[in-house]
Write a structure and sequence with these properties.
By secondary structure, the protein is mainly α. It contains 4 helices and no strands.
Amino acid sequence: MNTFTFKEKEVLALVSSGLTTKEIASRLNISHHTVETHRKNLLRKCEAKNSVELVQKALMQQLITV
């Protein structure tokens, strides 16, 4: 996996917590479009097809903890 930006790591942690795009945008005070861009970049960098696979791969790589 490639390296992630600070904001991508924040989004990843919130995705893994089960928050929606709208909730993440509100928490980080950014637009939902920006959250979607970060999510797309994370999926691409992790070669994941969806958010569930993204979180699974991040857990296996110890990028996030439960």
